[in-house]
Every structure is written in C-alpha cells, then in structure tokens.
Amino acid sequence: MKLRELGEDRLLAQLLPRLPRGKAVFAGAGDDCALVEAPTGRNFLVLKTDCVVEGVHFLPRADALDVGWKAMMRPLSDFAATSARPQFALITLIVPKQTTSEWVKRIYRGLSRAAARFKVSIVGGETSSTRGPAVISVSVSGLVEKNRCVSRSGGKAGDDLFVTGRLGGANRGRHLRFVPRIEESRWLTKNFSIHAMMDLSDGLGVDLPRLTRASKVGFKIDINLLPRSPGCNIDNAISDGDDYELLFAISPRESERLQKSWSKKFPKLLLTRIGRLNSRFEIRDSRLLRGYVHFQ
Predict the structure, then answer these.
(1) How far apart are CA 47 and CA 236, in angstroms?
(2) What's this model's pTM, rounded to 2 decimal places?
C-alpha cells in the first residue's frame, strides 16, 4: 500500500508498537514529546525532533529568516504541549549544493533568534547536501517536573475543552512567525490540573480526534464557538493547520476560575471553551475530520 493511501496516522499505528522501549521511558513515540527518567529523579528528560521541508512547510520564495524561526519554534511548540522547559538544540541542515551562503546564514539567524527567545542553546548538529528540496531538522532536549508534565492521554469524560488564541489563516504568513505557548503552558500547569494537552499543528479537525483517541474518550464541540482569525470561516478554523495554539482538557470545576485568572494574566490572548469530552467517540460533523495529513 502506498503512503498516500495509508496516511500518516495509520502508518504510525503500524510502526510505533514495534519500536524498542526501555524501562526509563515514561512517554515514547506517539505523543508530542518523549519523556524519559532523568538522573535527578524529580524531572523527566524531554526529547523532541521536528523538521521543515521546502515545498511542504515553506515555499522557496519565503524569507530564510522566517524559515529558520519556524524550524526552531515547531519543536518548541511541542514542548509547550508537554509544559516542558527547552534547554539545548541540535540543527541538521540538508540543502542542494547550489544554495547560497547568504541563504544559509539567514536560516541560522532565524534559528538563533527563535532559540534566544526561550534561552535555548544551539550546541551542534550536522550539514549534508541533497538533490531534493532543502530540509532543516531541529532536535531539542529539556526538562519537565514530574508533577507538571502533560500528555494527550489524560483526558476524562466530562472535562471542558479549551483552545488558546485564534484558529485559521496560517497560510497568510502566520505559520512562519508564530510564538509557541510555552509561557502560557507553564502557567497553566503551575496553577491548574491540566488533564490532557497538545499543540494544534495539523488543524483542529485532525488534532482533536488524536487527543481523544489517546485519552480513550469522545468529544462534543460547538463549531460556532471556535475562535477564528480575521477573515477566516469555520472551515478554515477547523482544517487550515499551522495554528500552534494549545488545546487542553480541564475539569469543569476549575473552568470558571481558569477563565477569570487567564484574563488577568494574559489579557491580550483569547481563551475559549469550545466543548467537552464525553464517553462516546462520535463525530456528527464531517468537517471535524479535516486538516493537514502527511502523505495525502
């Protein structure tokens, strides 16, 4: 079966169960970040790698400065989903031999600016040539306290579902210049019990079902409540992808306090309750199965 017929999620379902997993692994492949036991015992070591590919994640005419920024911020958005603190990064740059040195320098300027935003040290990497499109891969490591780490799998029936910011419209340039919600995520886990969380990179229509499958629950949302970017319709908010906002589940007993506290702490960033988790996996609106799917 060809990858375009199989799709990303079905491919991963076939590959991931066969991967070796040692006793030190708390959360492995299949979540936003891997979590492994750290030497101190109080924290998990957090590991994540991500990449941007020319023609997939950015167009050839895109400013290399923005491309470098996005390449670094993509894995850092997964750190936000886990409420982790990034520390070190490795960069792998794979480009055609006709690439100009100025383009590469602007890529690294963008990488460095993004890393400095969250005090991440770039400590090494690799370069290689290719006959295909340019690829920038970034691997990040860091730490998260065991009592504050969050995964996709902790959602409970009855939990309220929230999203940060606005959805849709990333193809107008937002996908190159976003800032991961690390500060907001760290504040959430310090002040509230967050049951499940992930970042919205492939679109709500793809990522929300992923969270609920991991948590073994269903969901019901009101699509008319979805916070939309200016000029976007509901379909854009569901399926555009590259939002890099947080989607999380929390007990309804904490929802009112959360909303009041959020508006004081982050007055310029919208927080919206879009629905609730339930015990039945049922999708009545087919639009909630749309988003970006690799290989299709």
Answers:
(1) 31
(2) 0.85
